[in-house]
Write the structure tokens for this entry.
Amino acid sequence: MAISFRNPRNILLWSLLFIFYSSALFSHGANTIIQGQVVRDGEFIISAAQIFVLGFFSPKNSPYRYVGIWYDKVPIQTVVWVANREEPISGDGGVITIGSDGNLMVLDGNGNSVWSANASSIESSNSTAILMDTGDLVLSRNNSDEALWRSFSYPTDTYLPDMRVYMNVEEGESRVFNSWKSANDPSPGRYSMGVDPRGSPQIVIWEGLNRYWRSGHWNGIIFTGVPRMRAIYLYGFRLLNEGDGRLYFTYSKMNNSDLINFRITWEGYERQVRWDEVLREWSVIQMQPRNECDLYNKCGPFGICSVVNSPICSCMKGFIPKDLDQWRNGNWSGGCTRRTPSQCQRNEGESGREDGFLGIEGVKLPDFMDGSESNNEECEEKCLRNCSCNAYAFVSGINCMLWSGDLVDIQSFDEGGNTLYLRLPKSELGGKRKVTILVIMAVSVAGTFFLSMFIWLLWRYKSKLKGITGSRRKNHELPQIGANPSGEFSTDFSGTGDLSVEGQQGSGQELSLFNFNSVAAATNNFSLENKLGQGGFGSVYKCNFAFAKTTHFYFNEKLCGYGLMEWKP
Ligand SMILES: *[C@@H]1O[C@H](CO)[C@@H](O)[C@H](O)[C@H]1NC(C)=O
Ligand SMILES: *[C@@H]1O[C@H](CO)[C@@H](O)[C@H](O)[C@H]1NC(C)=O
Ligand SMILES: *[C@@H]1O[C@H](CO)[C@@H](O)[C@H](O)[C@H]1NC(C)=O
Ligand SMILES: *[C@@H]1O[C@H](CO)[C@@H](O)[C@H](O)[C@H]1NC(C)=O
Ligand SMILES: *[C@@H]1O[C@H](CO)[C@@H](O)[C@H](O)[C@H]1NC(C)=O
Ligand SMILES: *[C@@H]1O[C@H](CO)[C@@H](O)[C@H](O)[C@H]1NC(C)=O
């Protein structure tokens, strides 16, 4: 190539070429469909910043045509939304248009409607559909910002950033996303994904009508049943309240140029991916379920699943297999039953005061809790008093959790998890005196520990914490405030005096840690202007660090700590 940048004329030439190329790109598609306009098969609607495309496509190995939305710049066809997933079009005569009633619709080659947005209240001859850079297709009246219909409210199988997944405690579980039938067929498949808002919300995957996987309850920072799902909060995953009991999950991109999404795959996996511009492929950030123990209720009621054990299923202490032959043959679905009836069961109607609790550490807590707002001591008391209560747990960010009836879908983790307190008769627990002595000992040890920690902390704060000190440490040197094996938040001060959240090293990702003073400064002393939102878990702030990108900061009084995450590709 003879063209050199040293020659100013060549720079001009390059600039002209660039301008020509850019305008050529822009001119090959608008981002709107107006009333009366017809978008034919082979024509495309492209979002303003050329992130998403709307048009006709065929899945690989499929002869049919579908209207969908996919990524413009991703060479591997990645469809995030499908309109006529149940009514494929044969041949290339299909069109997208806005009908005379103002509805967005898809017609086949014979002019028959195969799909309509069905916004019944439209009755407008002035509507326009716009494909946004978020991937949302929005139908609205001319001169109005109010959406009549939007594709984000009718997702297919993909959860995009900024999409809101609404839930209503009264309405119970909602199945929001539905998998494709197969890689070639976008019609609804066997798996769906959504939320169960009861107690504290959790994400659920269903296979048909049955639960197939669940995330465990949200504690404000992570889903308690997925202790390693840290990538989610790296991406600003949060639960927000819109008022009227309407809660929604949403997440945002940390870097605007990131392409990320969640999808329920036709094989039943929840998969979160990010486009890797260097490798030119989707890299998987996390995927669930990951192993046999993640499968819903693998070991049946009162069974515990652990991947490091062989066989993976065992009964909880004080329980024996319900059907020993089936259990020995590896059919664990029947679960376990009490070896000795609890005091409650033996004396129907009596208080059950003679029962006690066994703490089982590092587990995925059972499904179907009954929520309660008590503190820890009241929690135990409440469970003890009620004979139908089989277990309780206390988790920061959720508070007291009680379970009556069968305890299902319990997994033992080798890292993370929470402590479940299982109701057992005294005979299964050992003597009462022994327990009392242990409690007294534990209380005095803990008291001494906290007192010395407090004095030490005071000393640290006076002597050291000023501004950002050593805030970019390597991961293995991290001081940690994060879910300890019992899932409660605690601070490990063995490193330095900085409070910080533990971060997991992903592929090339690095977390930067900030001390309290610098976070206070970056959020303008937690000013309202910097406050982005408020959920059941606490507040989310926007931080402006001189040296870092603007980032999000989670603050939670209940958790007695805070975390801050920065995404560094
Ligand atoms: C729209 O409404 C019609 C008639 O009520 C129904 O047959 C069709 O399935 C609906 N389409 C969508 C996409 O909901
Ligand atoms: C369409 O919009 C124009 C102005 O934006 C308004 O004058 C006209 O009445 C509208 N037509 C209908 C049918 O709503
Ligand atoms: C609606 O708005 C589009 C541009 O946004 C315009 O081209 C079209 O003429 C408008 N329709 C009516 C009926 O005013
Ligand atoms: C976002 O990511 C792109 C490419 O991955 C990078 O070039 C850019 O600097 C990043 N932006 C910010 C604000 O970090
Ligand atoms: C597994 O065991 C349960 C009872 O515990 C029984 O009802 C079921 O049929 C068994 N399934 C198989 C495949 O044997
Ligand atoms: C005991 O717990 C059950 C189930 O949570 C509840 O329905 C019942 O009202 C409770 N009884 C008392 C006395 O609190």
